[in-house]
Design a protein that fits this description.
16 helices, Sulfotransferase, Rossmann fold, P-loop_NTPase, sulfotransferase activity, 5-stranded parallel sheet, binds adenosine-3'-5'-diphosphate, transferase, EC 2.8.2.-
């Protein structure tokens, strides 16, 4: 199972827990780091944590998702929706910034150092509503996130497509650090994934926890699927806007603001904006935008592996009402 993150464990806790070294980064991405998101245990520097202590509030908006499920896309869409009154579309920060620069990731201090862009020293520096994101599983989230009443938008994706996406992302990372030896075969990643020894932790448990929360507290947790967004984004963006309490007005509907936001966040545009530049010394901005398609897994796995995943999926999701 997942371990509980220490309370108020925003970035500082995670950073203190596992250190900020390139080797941890590497273990994390290749799935060999054994305690994924296992803060709350070990040598926390309480003074550091105290300094950064941050109480989450009802107005906070979180994007949650297992790595490579489309979190960057959802970040851009959420930013586009929330900030639509602040900037005309043709002056949107999304035309000049990577979505990661606009939606702050809770684990940032942990797995990155030397950001190429400024980071807040304290979450209170962010304007309300704070746009935050995390890959941390529900169980492991700090209590104050669960009890503050903040809203969580969870994105899920077909596990095989998630795996393929992850594999290519690690390849890009390996190229960047000039050490391609760290890349396992896709089949090895597949095995690790099935065993739950993977970046982000066990996949199905991650998805199911948020799925169940979305059924229990539909006003606080919105469950989205990458495939549904790809299929027909507009109705889902309307749902998102309503969920966060910022529905599109009749005037905005008539001006078709939603379609403008969709266009702004289109993968082609995102690739153009982010074709050069880096997140930090590990990641190129462009590595977050690859194909952006549904079903790339069909080009990557043998029938035997597909069958194995289908069996596992059936077993894990049985009775949940969820399927991919
Ligand atoms: P692929 O590798 O299958 O192309 P994350 O943002 O959670 O790391 O997920 C990355 C995946 O989302 C990648 O999938 C990437 O191409 C896809 N993606 C990123 N931006 C997108 C967009 N604007 N539209 C659709 N897919 C997008």
């Amino acid at each position: 199972g997942f371990l509980q993150l220490a309370e108020a464990s925003n970035t500082a806790t995670l950073g203190a827990e596992v250190g900020n070294s390139a080797s941890v980064q590497q273990q994390y991405l290749t799935g060999s780091f054994p305690i994924v998101f296992a803060a709350g245990k070990g040598n926390l520097d309480e003074k550091e944590v105290g300094k950064k202590r941050s109480i989450y509030t009802e107005s906070d908006l979180f994007i949650a998702g297992f790595p490579k499920t489309g979190t960057t896309w959802l970040k851009s869409l959420l930013f586009g929706i929330v900030k639509r009154a602040n900037h005309p579309i043709d002056h949107s920060p999304l035309l000049t910034h990577h979505p990661q620069e606009l939606v702050y990731n809770l684990e940032n201090d942990w797995y990155n150092q030397a950001f190429a862009y400024p980071q807040p020293h304290h979450l209170n520096e962010l304007k309300s509503p704070r746009l935050l994101s995390t890959h941390v599983p529900y169980t492991s989230l700090p209590e104050s996130i669960k009890t503050s009443g903040c809203r969580i938008l969870y994105i899920s994706r077909n596990p095989l497509d998630t795996l393929v996406s992850f594999y290519y992302f690690v390849l890009e990372y390996a190229k960047k650090i000039e050490n391609e030896d760290i890349v396992k075969s896709l089949e090895n990643f597949f095995e690790d994934f099935c065993e739950g020894k993977f970046t982000g932790g066990p996949y199905f448990e991650h998805v199911l926890e948020f799925w169940n929360m979305s059924l229990e507290r539909p006003d606080k947790v919105l469950f989205l699927k990458y495939e549904d967004l790809k299929d027909d984004l507009k109705p889902h963006l309307k749902r998102v806007a309503e969920f966060i309490g910022m529905p599109f007005s009749p005037q905005e509907e008539s001006e078709d603001v939603i379609t403008q936001i969709i266009e702004l966040c289109n993968i082609k545009n995102m690739k153009e904006v982010n074709k050069s530049g880096v997140i930090n010394k590990f990641f190129e901005k462009k590595s977050y935008f690859r194909k952006g398609e549904v079903g790339d897994w069909t080009n990557h796995f043998s029938p035997a592996l597909v069958e194995k995943m289908n069996k596992l999926m059936k077993e894990k999701l049985d009775g949940s009402g969820l399927s991919f």
